[in-house]
Sequence to fold (446 residues):
Amino acid sequence: MNISIDVKDIDSQVRVSVKGEIDAYTAPKLRETIFPLSEKENVNMVIDLTEVAYMDSTGLGVFVGLFKSIRSHDGEFRLVGLSERLRRLFEITGLADIIDIKSDTEGGLE
Amino acid sequence: MDFRETMEEKYREALSTYLSEQTENALYQGQKLSRKTIEYKVSPEEIISLHKSILMDIFPETPAKVMHSLDFLLEVMIGYGNAYREHQSLRHEQQELKSELEIATNVQHTLLDTKIPDFDGIEIGVISVPAKHMNGDYYHFVQDENECIGVAIADVIGKGIPAALCMSMIKYAMDSLPETGNAPSDVLESLNRVVEQNVDPSMFITMFYGLYNPHNHIFSYASAGHEPGFYYEAATGKFRDLDAKGLLLGVNKKTKYRAYEKLVEPGDMIILLSDGVTECRTEEGFIERETLIQYIQNNIHLCAQEIVNNIYKQLEKLQHFQLRDDFTLIILKREV
Fold:
């Protein structure tokens, strides 16, 4: 059970790369690291999940919480690099209709 | 007589014996004594202090430096003594929590208990097993005045006690719904408002709600982000996903849920599950939905309850009997 979270500020965009597994054990660390960043006004956050090998519904909870927080601070939120399995998780839960998960990794830099 | 009163005498005897003969047996007496002193909560620093005073008594010519070193050792041991006492009190607290948790588990069973309707024409099989003490999955059956059977299956995002408490709230909200004429999409919309207002902002619930009408055999349903179930068509022997789209409960209070309908023919089956079923991980990766269908297929000649029991047993074995997530599987089968 390990996770590594890398946060970079590039051109007023917060870019977060997550590596490893997101589950009940690692989700609190993810939340604690990213949540404070979501509470700034007009934040523009992109989270790259390309190297996430596994995520369960606890991880989904973290991203929904983030999305709600960012939206209430008039910010922008995007998830990139989702595996097919992750994409399916967002589609089943209806979250794909409200959270931007469609752009690919490169799109994050446009 | 209290052990503490005789402790000094016993220690003196054991130490003297050891100092004079240094045998295995004499040494073992010290070990035996320590079991008693631990039982009577004698701290390590007390033992050293006792050791020092007895040593001074029986061997007065001990060099002063050795005696001083014992004072030094005593100081060091105070830290160990404190750690030991802390450990004892944590152990005690842990035992208290454990028994509270057991009571809470029983309360949850009582609260979430649901009666599986038993009536002609439809066969129901259910299995629900928590990964830990308390179950974050929830299922619920209700039969209204028109004999329609309502079935709900839900999963709180999150596990353990917080998830279980959240479920109790959902159950309460469901019990407060009017008794008849609850279209599945209306049920989800009203529960969504409850969850959105009352639950922690990072806690969400997925739910599937279905209503089976035994008069016209129409199964109407709606889903709030729940793992899709399966539909088995007896005429063709084919399975397909019971697709229904809808957002998780608790994200947006204005969410509308789409209603779906399906005519259930004799022998057809509706299979509902929690994500603990599809998140079942084996050494080769996740269990595929196709594999699950294969399992159902292998058991299709059995009754609904036997099918769910057998599938649980197979998946449990695949995971070496270590559930990672709460597991719920429900089958509704229209009798032939």
